């Protein structure tokens, strides 16, 4: 009995473990199913986001083909996950239908996941197919547009090659030209349509919002070509008419002699001269006969116009065509401006006003509350300016091209101020939008109310697109305008908008600079910015920097910044990490460097630090060298010129008093330094820095713009090499030795009298203030630092005296006062 009981127990245990193992396996399969479901769900979410971001459809056939290939490749990638999802769905159905799976795999757990996978797979597949279909239609449209452009180009070439003067002489040539135009118009069969007008209807029907502007431009061009062809055909048909040729005798005017005093010329010459004098259409038939035996008979019905009238006719035709095209461009400018204003108004009303309304406040996400100024920037100011000012200006002046150009010139500063701020705010707006989801209920509801097909981000780029569109329209107007006042005004307007674009672009780059220790706004105007290869050599660091460094350099009026270009992963925007900077008042320039014509050098005093810079092209190098030379020359002119006049007028007596202690040789040397400096500038040397303006500029054989240093004797050549800008200077500079030895940067001086600064670059001093000399300028101006206040700036040297000579200086001044009294 015990054995039977033991066997029964063993059998129960075997059955239990068998059932338990089966349940564990089913549970493991369920967990694997759930794991794969979550993984596929994440993959499909990414697929949907990627497909939603594929909004570009291309503007050329090649671009459409490239986008189509990319979409098909991505479709293959999505098919892998779709096939995997089908396997997971099959596994889920098997888990639901298996025996013994009721407790481990309930249907209410597995079935919803299977249904969700099926729905997402179908959605992704539909989106991909729709994307491919859209691109296929876009490619077909671009092919039609390309054919239309080629058709227009052939038409313009045909009209240009036909010589209207030959058609005027020969009816056969006119008929041939007419047949050529008719054959050309018959080539509309290339569009698989019967006429260009039918093609127009077809192309308009297949255009989208993204391609509407391109299609409108092509259709306008086709209309222009069609119109020119119709005009030419009308002219040629008139020339092909052959009226009867009556012969009448021309009765001369009584007051005109029948022949010149010298006798009648040969009949043939008379015929040719009379033929050349015909200048307009004849009002009645005239016969001009040659010699009886020549068989020549020319009548006015075959001579329609001479070469001068033909040229006038052709010129008039070209002028009419340019006027027509100019009218189309002006109409496009006004129409697109109205659309632009309407779109900005809809964005402000449909999004910003909704954010501030109480009805939608419950739907506004917390991240957007109180941040409309960040999201939209100064879009409201742009809308006000265009709606209330610029659009009205265009509407009032649209009939006169010169006034339209004047609108852009007068509003240039407003364009720069508004669009510069808006473009600088774009990164902040993008970062804010990235914290949200475009499908958020609030944004989705606003977009639905407006009926927009594109999300908010696409409309916030409209101002950037518009400011770049203006210069394109102005270029078209300039191309279709006659030379003269109209052309000059349009060129001014185009130059203004190009400057605005450059300033806006520079401001976008400028805000991307990170890590700069000083204030960028204090460095003056941004003049140039570009990427270079840089090699750096420093005497402080004996190791040469032979490694090539890629640097993006910003040239300001007062500084040159060396930055390393990087890219933010999150925003895909270029950033510039600050690495080094040079003050423009401390640099020298070498225009040409051996080894490569694209290189130039900037260096500090005594070549303590040398930066060899290689541009991408020789044009970029020349542009930078020219601009740096201009900045350095302006620094020189700032110290000379007006300041010399003010110094001579306002401080003549004090300057005269100060010169009593100077030896005659030193005083003459100062005058000689100024005269030599002026001669150097007159000879074309235009590059100096404020750090060495007191020295004489010199250009050596290698094209290096340097300034001669000063040494007390030729035996001090080594010390001179370390402190001077260049060792290449003439013997005539030896007379400056005494002055330079007594005036050394770092020495302390005392102010002899109160001095009030004139301009931002000067410094105010009070009597007996102790100052430190930082550098020596020209014409008696020093750059000093007031010890008491810490302020730095330019001051007249006549106001300053070395601290160890104060007493003797005061005694000399008193003695001079007594002499003046006597």
UniProtKB/TrEMBL annotation:
- GO terms (BP aspect): intracellular signal transduction
InterPro entries listed in its UniProt record: DBL_dom_sf (IPR035899), DH_dom (IPR000219), GDS_CDC24_CS (IPR001331), PH-like_dom_sf (IPR011993), PH_domain (IPR001849), RhoGEF_Guanine_NuclExch_SF (IPR051336), SH3-like_dom_sf (IPR036028), SH3_domain (IPR001452)
Q: Which GO terms label this protein's molecular function in UniProt?
A: guanyl-nucleotide exchange factor activity
Q: Which domain of life is it from?
A: Eukaryota
Q: Name one GO cellular component term.
A: cytoplasm
This one is known as Putative guanine nucleotide exchange factor for rho and rac gtpase
Q: Where is the composition biased (Pro residues)?
A: 254-264
The record lists the organism as Anopheles triannulatus
Query: Region annotation Disordered: residue ranges?
Result: 244-268, 710-731
Compositional bias, Polar residues, is annotated for: 721-730
Provide the DH domain boundaries: 325-507
Q: Name one Pfam family in it.
A: SOS1_NGEF_PH
Q: Which residues form the SH3 domain?
A: 744-805
Q: In this protein, which residues make up the domain named PH?
A: 519-633
UniProt keyword terms in alphabetical order: Guanine-nucleotide releasing factor, SH3 domain
Among SUPFAM superfamilies, the record links this protein to: DBL homology domain (DH-domain), PH domain-like, SH3-domain, Spectrin repeat
